[in-house]
Every structure is written in structure tokens, then in C-alpha cells.
Amino acid sequence: MQSLIEGAPDAGENPTEERRRNRRGTRRVLIVLATVVALVLGGIVAFVGYLGYRVNDNITQEDFLPENRPPVTAPDGTDVPETGIGTNFLVLGADTRPGDAGRSDVIVLVHVPEDASTVQMIHFPRDLWVDIPGRGKDKINAAYAYGREPLLVATMEQLLGIRIHHVARTDFEGFQRMTDAVGGVRVYAEEGGSDGIVEGWNDLDGEQALAFVRERYTLSEGDISRGRRQLAFIKALFLKATSPENITNPLAVARFADAATENLVVDQGLSIRAMTDYAVSLRDIRGGDVVFATAPFSGFGTSPGGASIDVVDEEKMAELGEALRTDTMDEYLDVFVTP
User: Fold this and answer.
1) 46 confidence band (pLDDT: 50, 70, 90)
2) What is the pTM of this model?
3) Residues annotated as region Disordered (predicted)?
């Protein structure tokens, strides 16, 4: 008669045979568990391998940093260390519409402090009137047109008295793809515009986000207002991409990583491993930890050639450089940036 307990021996069965059956059953369970674990781990490894392959295949590395870089000198005449405190990234966005070749419409300096507790973004208006090494006075955007990334890096280092460690460039269409990859973003606009944006919160898909970061002619301060929009968008995208709903979804991670790196170009020293290490160090960043401001300028003016320019506030620019060199950006932002 069959036992009421599945797998139990019938009456009179040899105890030794019973122990053998139990051992065989245990081995079968362990084999099944080991197989499941192997399949799961194998899937994870395969996914990570695929993702790494896609990212590595997407990203291009170029010589963005100047050759034979001279020492950076602070206003007091001392040399700025190559490594310094914290890390400075120059992030550029190029508009790829016809007629916009050779121009960078997004110039953002991203400072990550040594303790990686915040992400501090400074937007540099493209009409900022600065000294360009070997070219004299011109708009900061002209440095990119004259000598691409290396000359823009040299211009920024001279302007601020800091060392820029890494450079990354993408295009405006990359903003659109990344937005769609995370399912859209929610952005606060300081003012509305002809692009359908209203003052206050806006939920944007990729196409709307592209229009949002491009608009400037109908905004109150033109490129200055557009720069604030771009920083607000970058913050919104960063927060959405690192939200639990996306970061815990392998497919969402893969979509975003693919979109973010499809047309990404970085300097030769910014390897996949380095980017991964930076991303891990920022894993605890939240909304209040991402702060941004506009590089200090004292007003608007006209160049000798009649072009509209933004006049640098020399004193506050020196303060900004000092804050970046000493990793005291929190103090700088508290003093000079209105919430």
C-alpha cells in the first residue's frame, strides 16, 4: 500500500535502502538548485557582457585634451596639481542641424567632489567674452570652432585656473534618445516658450525634450535662459535614469546605456572601467544632491565687431575657480547662486 507521505518507504522496507533513497533525493534537489543558479548567473553574466560590448562598441575615444599641456597657474602664481581635489568633467553638446557644424551649443563644467556627495554643474554661455589662447578675445564658443575640444579645454583652464580631467561630447539627438529610453522626463521650466512648454512642470518625451533644450529665441534672456533649461533637463534625465524603476530593470538599463553611448565621444583617458567606477561612486546621489548654476557674468555687451556678448564677472569667476580648486563648491554656490 502506498504511504500517505510521498517518498516514504513502504512498511518492511530495508532502512539502508531508505537512507540511499533519501540521499538520492537530496542529490537531485541540489542538482536542480545548482542548475537554476547557474542559469540565473549565466544570464546575468551574459547580460552584463552584452551591455559592456554594446557600450564599448558605441563609445569613441579621441584626443580631446591638449598635447604638452602647460601647468595650470592659480591667480596667486602657484601651479595647480594635475589631480587636484575632486574631478572636473567638461561636457559638450553639439547641435547637428544643418548649418550648425563645428559649434558646441552646450558647454557644462561638471565638478564631482572628492567624497562624491554631490554633482555640481556650471553652464558656460556660448557668448561669454573670454581670452582664447593664441586667438585673443572672442566668444567662448569660438574656441571650439577654432580648435575643437583641445582649445576649448585650454581656454577653460586659463579662465578658471583649474585642471580639466575629462571631456565628453554628445549631440542633441542623443538627448532625445536618452529621454525616450527612460520613458520620458519631468522638467521644471522657469518660463514658457513657442515650443509648447508651459511655466512650471512639464512631462516631456524625446521629441519634446529636443525642442526644450534647443529653444532660445523666445526666451527672456536668450542663450542664458536656454542654458538654465538645459541644466534643468540634464538633472531631470539623470534622476530619471537612476530612479528605482529604471535602475532595477535590466532592459531599461540596457536601453538607456545604448542610447547614452550611441554617439558619445570621450577623451582617451576615460575608459569604460573609469566610467563604471565614477557611476558606482555616485550611486547614492539624489535630487537635492544635483545642483547647477550659470558661470558668473556681469551683463550684456557688444564686441568690437558688433556681436552680442556676455561680459565676464572677473571677481566672481576667480571665486568660482578657487572653489573648484579647493573642492569648496558648496560654499560658492551658497553665496553666489540664488535658489
Assistant:
1) very low
2) 0.75
3) 1-22
